Amino acid sequence: MTGQHGPGEPAGTRARLRRLPVVTRLVLAVAVTMSLVLTGAAGLVYWRVKTALDQQLNDDLTAYQRGLDRAVRAGSPLPPGPSGSLKQVLDGQGHVLRSSDALPRRLLTPAELAAVAGGATIRRDIGSLLPITSGTLRLQARRVTADGQPRIVIAALRRGHRDEALRELLAQLGLASALTLIAASYVGYRTARAALRPVERYRSGAATLADGAQNTRLDVPADRDDEITRLGHTLNHMLERLEASAERERRFVADASHELRTPLTLMRAELDVALHRPRSRGELTETLRSVDTEVQRLIDLSNALLDLEELGGNAHITRFPLRLPGLVEAAVAPHLRTAERAGRALTVEVPDATVDADARWLQPAIGNLVDNALRHGDGTVRVTATAGGGRLRLRVADEGPGFPAEFLPRAFDRFARAEASRTSRGSGLGLAFVRAAAVAHGGGAYAENTEDGGAVTLDLPC
Fold first, then answer.
1. CA 64 to CA 204: how far, in whole Å?
2. Which residues, 6+ apart, have CB-to-CB distance to 305 below 8 Å?
3. Residue 387 and residue 461: Cα distance in Å, rounded?
4. CA pair distance 353, 347, nearest whole angstrom
5. 92 near 111, Cβ under 8 Å?
6. Residues β-bridged to residue 446
7. Residue of 288, 284, 362 lying closest to 323 (CA atoms)
8. Measured between alpha carbons, how far is 404 from 13 in angstroms, rounded to an integer?
9. Digits of tens for pLDDT over the chain (462 positions)?
10. What letter does residue 78 receive in the DSSP assignment?
11. CA angle, 96 as apex, 94 and 101 as ends, to 5°?
12. 207 Cβ partners below 8 Å, 6+ apart?
């Protein structure tokens, strides 16, 4: 069972950690990291101090051992040692010859005794640092020869001061590490809260938009440039895009409901009249032709609205180098027969330039301008273009009465129409489509009246 549950435990721990708030996870990360750093630093300090204390104790023990060795060889009284020193002299069989009263009768094990008798030097500790024990010693045993007989000389020093210093050091390091860990965790908590406070503010602002608030923008500091500030600018840009998308959707629904109602009502009226009483074959044919006209108008209007919506929603513009003469000729060609039937001239004068554009949108935009000039203008329709300064200005002009002065400011609005004599046909979406196509290509469009008539110009990057 342990083998089955063991592999799942780390995954469960990670899942629980992921469910914690971000601030809590950051504080835990800081605490764990600081614990490792403090443990390493405390271990290094403890090791350095312990090494220094042990080295000093070993030096004192070695010096005391030499003095004892000389006294045993000379057969003289054993010299006094440093404070806390003890001594013991054994014969070759391990019997105690001389000893300090505080020492136990047996300090060496049989194996250690045999090793020292064989010429080895033994050094070891008696008692432990933790838990606290009394009578802690460090001893050193070595064989010497006195009057031709082997003797084992044991020198010992009390470790009380050394152990007390190390225990005090451990306590101080533990206290300092705990206080440092608490302070680092608190600073990490405050720092994380301060860093994430703008994110929470941005979340609250986005939540108000989700609740239906309009024109919501996040309060982003203008005097900073960090990750959080850039996130705020990105969210504001996203909010602008969402608001524009919602506005386009509302406008599309309003335009469709407004403009589609009239042809649908006319179609319903035509059908109601046809069904009111029996009709002749000719009357039914006329009714069907009228309905067909309205259906075509609905199709044209729906296509125009969908094209405008796609362009207004930042349609994917695929730019290719296009020869301007070929692009304009393709846009003008469908209208040549219309101009010929109306007895009007249609001329094209464009330079042999290249423009990076999407023919899918730019070609019908030019065609719309030519169609408007043929429908609402008079005289010759001239399509001209000039290139310079990185811009291409393509102009479609006619010799008609031009645009009414009050119509010019709203000429490119959706469903904008001038006086009835000029707009008896069409949906009022042609110029709106022209401007949308120009804007999608990074340019613009404007209408004007000239001495000869009206003109519309497309201003595009070349």
1. 77
2. 252, 255, 256, 259, 429
3. 9
4. 18
5. no
6. 457
7. 362
8. 75
9. 444 444 545 667 777 777 888 888 889 999 999 999 999 999 999 999 999 999 999 999 999 999 999 999 998 999 988 888 999 999 988 899 999 888 877 888 999 999 999 999 999 999 999 888 888 999 999 999 998 899 999 999 999 999 999 999 999 999 999 999 999 999 999 988 888 888 887 777 777 766 666 666 777 777 777 777 888 788 788 777 777 766 766 766 666 666 666 667 777 777 777 777 777 778 778 777 777 776 766 676 666 666 666 666 555 677 888 898 999 999 999 899 988 998 999 999 998 888 888 888 888 889 888 988 888 888 999 999 988 888 889 999 998 888 888 888 888 776 666 654 333 455 667 788 888 888 888 888 888 988 888 899 988 887
10. P
11. 140
12. none
Pairing of strands 391-397, 381-388: antiparallel
> Which residue bears the tokens 């990057």?
461
pTM, whole model, 2 decimals? Answer: 0.53
DSSP letters of 163-181? Answer: HHHHHHHHHHHHHHHHHHH
Q: Cα–Cα distance between 64 and 47 in angstroms, integer?
A: 25
* Tokens representing residue 205 in the block: 């602002």
Burial class (CB in 10 A: 0-12, 13-18, 19+), 371: buried
CA pair distance 140, 126, nearest whole angstrom: 11
Query: What is the dihedral sign for C-alpha 240, 242, 248, 254?
Result: negative
139: left (phi over 0), alpha (psi -120 to 50) or beta: beta
